Input
Amino acid sequence: MRPETSPGSDLDAELLLTMYRHMVRARVLDERMWVLNRQGRAPFVISCQGHEAAQVGMAMALRPGHDWIAPYYRDLALTLVLGMTPRDHLLALLARAADPNSGGRQMPAHYGYRPLNIITGGSPVATQMLHAAGAALASRVRGEDAVAYTSLGEGSTSEGDFHEALNFAAVHQLPMITVVENNGFAISVPWSKQGHTKDVADRALGYGMPGVIVDGLDPVASYHVMTEAVARARRGEGPTLIEAKVARLTPHSSDDDDRPYKTREAVAEEKAQDCVLRFRRVLEERGVLSPGDAEEVRAECMREVDRAQEEAENSPLPSPDSLHLHVYGDQ
Output
């Protein structure tokens, strides 16, 4: 049985404004990364544009530094809400030694931040789910109430790791929450060629866990769904599979061209429902955002990203002497 979800509107104005600021901040940073890539100053970008509402809503229901996070490569907004900064992400994008993810040694968007319990991941997709299952088991063995959050794209649900992690979590009733950010395309392949169920959440029945579908363009709905899943997990009632229906407003990555497999009409339709603009309209209609507020929020975010870019560009590159650091040990 699939629980019903509801967008709801019982959150106070300050929380709604915080959600909006997080979404705009992630969008501005994401856009800047594309600019740096197109200028030839950054090698690779993989975008979260269109995923911000789901990620912000989910992240705001978690406890930073307490819960365990095994993210995937589009989780820019999620990691920002949990405590990483634009500077952290730009240090990684520009491969600087001060990059907290890997010291400038990993590809961009391979997130990892020990103080925030963000677990570093590999490039093969869905492997992070096994990390989350292990963290959830460890949390329970220790008698802690931390939950393990993991996310992936719908294409990654074709991987064996998806089955292994969900089956293990269900059998052992682990406090693990899996979020599939379904934007309709696994790089260039549509969902119809990835799975034979209407929705990814349908698969939850086979594992014996709740499968929830949520409008991932709505941060409030995402927050409510995640809050319920976290409460279940902390009560010891086991894992939840959440499918957030989102949009991908850019090609798969900065190395992709989506024109051969995605019509311009489809792209225009998704951009018309841009989650950042849609949430702005909702807040303006409710009087949460006053005239000029949205422009000021974006200007504040631009100033923060400007400072972060300057600091990142002035930061030194890794020394060749540190090439093997953390690969074969600490020396």
Q: What stands out?
A: The longest helix spans residues 13-38. Confidence is low (pLDDT under 50) at residues 1-8.
